[in-house]
Automatic annotation (TrEMBL):
Keywords: Hydrolase, Metal-binding, Zinc. Its cofactor is Zn(2+). GO terms for molecular function: hydrolase activity, acting on carbon-nitrogen (but not peptide) bonds, in linear amides; hydrolase activity, acting on ester bonds; metal ion binding. InterPro entries: AstE_AspA_cat, N-alpha-Ac-DABA-like, N-alpha-Ac-DABA_deacetylase. The keyword Protein biosynthesis does not apply. This is Succinylglutamate desuccinylase/Aspartoacylase catalytic domain-containing protein. Residues 48-226 form the Succinylglutamate desuccinylase/Aspartoacylase catalytic domain. Gene3D superfamilies: Zn peptidases (3.40.630.10).
C-alpha cells in the first residue's frame, strides 16, 4: 500500500493518520454571532480516494446526522485508506430552525453550484463546492422524506454512469430508484464533474428511524469497502439491489382524512386497497387502490390530505418474488423491528 501524502483542508494541513474537526466560516447571523459548517476530516495513513458524506442539506432531515455520528464512531475508520470528509450538518441555519430551508426561504439543494456574491443559499452552495466537492472523488448525500412523508431506505442515482451503478449496487439499500439529475441539486453538480454520487433516502424529517439509520450506516461502510477505502468484509454477503424502472405517487382524489392500510416495504398487487379517504362528517368516502403492482417505498404519515396530495409512492418491480425475499433478508440482518415501524 502506498503511504498517503499530507491533505490540506480549511487552512489546515493534515498528515497521514490525522483526524480533526474544522469549522468552515459562513455568513454571520444578524445578531453578529458567528456561524460555521462543521466538517470532520479523517485522513488515512495510506493513499486512496477522497469521499464526502453529507447530511442535513435540508435542515430538518436529521437521520443522516445520526448516521454520520455513528460512522465517525466506527472502529472501521482505523483502517481507512484515503480521506473521508464528513459533513453532518450542511445547512446549519435550517438545522437550528428545524426547517428544510435557509433564512431566505431558498432550498440549498436547488441552489448549486451557487456564487460567492449570490443569495445566502447560493453562497453556502458555492462554499460547499469550492471547499468540499472540489477535493473529493465520490459523494454520498443523506436525506429523508419531507412534509410528513417517510421513505423506505433507498438509493437514488443517475444510472447512465457505470461507476455510479456499481457504487449504488455496493451500498446495499433494498431498492435503487433511477433518478434524473435535477437542476440546482448537489447531485447534479457533482455528477457534472464526472464524480459518482449517491443520494440515500430513508425515514421522515425531524424523526429518528432506527432501520433507516442502520441501513444508511451499513451502506456507507459497504461503499467504502467497494472503493478500496476499507478492507472488504469477509462475512458480508453481497446482495443485488432491486432496481425499479418506474415509480409513481398515488394522489388523493378528494380532500379529507386519510386512513392508511399499508406499511412501508409492503408489496401490493394492482387493485389492492392502499387506504381510505373520508370527509370529516363520514358522509363521503373513497377507497384508494394500487394502480399497478409494486412496492410501497414512500407514504404520507399525516392523516390529513387535500385533493391532489401525494399519498403513497409505488415502485414497479421487475421480479416481485425475488424482491420480497431480498427485502426480508435485509430486514432480518439489521434489526428485530421491520420497516413498517410507526411512530
Amino acid at each position: 500500500m502506498k503511504p498517503a501524502c499530507s491533505f490540506k483542508f480549511g487552512g489546515i494541513c493534515l498528515e497521514p493518520g490525522d483526524r480533526t474537526a474544522i469549522e468552515l466560516p459562513m455568513a454571520r447571523l444578524y445578531t453578529n454571532n458567528a456561524m460555521t459548517m462543521p466538517v470532520q476530516v479523517v485522513h488515512g495513513k495510506n493513499s486512496g480516494p477522497v469521499l464526502f458524506v453529507s447530511a442535513a442539506v435540508h435542515g430538518d432531515e436529521i437521520n443522516g446526522v445520526e448516521i454520520i455520528r455513528r460512522l465517525l464512531d466506527s472502529r472501521a475508520l482505523a483502517q481507512l485508506r484515503g480521506t473521508l470528509l464528513a459533513i453532518p450538518v450542511a445547512n446549519p441555519f435550517g438545522f437550528i430552525q428545524r426547517s428544510r430551508y435557509l433564512p431566505d426561504r431558498r432550498d440549498l439543494n436547488r441552489s448549486f453550484p451557487g456564487t460567492a456574491k449570490g443569495s445566502s443559499a447560493g453562497r453556502l452552495a458555492h462554499m460547499f463546492m469550492t471547499e468540499i466537492i472540489s477535493r473529493c472523488d465520490f459523494g454520498i448525500d443523506l436525506h429523508t422524506g419531507s412534509n410528513y412523508r417517510s421513505n423506505l431506505p433507498q438509493i437514488r442515482a443517475w444510472l447512465d454512469d457505470p461507476d455510479t451503478i456499481e457504487l449504488a449496487s455496493a451500498f446495499g439499500a433494498p431498492i435503487v430508484v433511477p433518478s434524473e439529475l435535477r437542476e440546482g441539486s448537489l447531485r447534479e453538480v457533482v455528477a457534472a464533474l464526472g464524480k459518482p454520487v449517491l443520494v440515500y433516502e430513508g425515514g421522515e424529517a425531524l424523526s429518528f428511524d432506527e432501520t433507516a439509520i442502520q441501513t444508511g450506516l451499513k451502506g456507507i461502510l459497504n461503499s467504502m469497502c467497494h472503493l478500496g477505502m476499507l478492507p472488504p468484509d469477509q462475512n458480508e454477503q453481497q446482495r443485488s439491489p432491486i432496481i425499479t424502472d418506474r415509480t409513481s405517487w398515488v394522489r388523493a382524489s378528494m380532500s379529507g382524512t386519510f386512513s392508511l392500510k399499508v406499511k412501508l416495504g409492503d408489496f401490493v398487487k394492482q387493485g389492492d386497497l392502499l387506504g381510505v379517504l373520508s370527509n370529516p362528517f363520514g358522509s363521503d368516502q373513497e377507497e384508494v387502490h394500487a394502480p399497478f403492482s409494486g412496492m410501497n417505498i414512500g407514504q404520507l404519515n399525516l392523516p390529513l390530505a387535500h385533493e391532489g396530495d401525494a399519498l403513497i409512492h409505488l415502485a414497479k418491480l421487475p421480479c416481485p418474488g425475488e424482491a420480497e425475499c431480498e427485502l426480508k433478508e435485509l430486514q432480518s440482518s439489521l434489526t428485530e423491528e421491520d420497516f413498517g415501524l410507526v411512530r
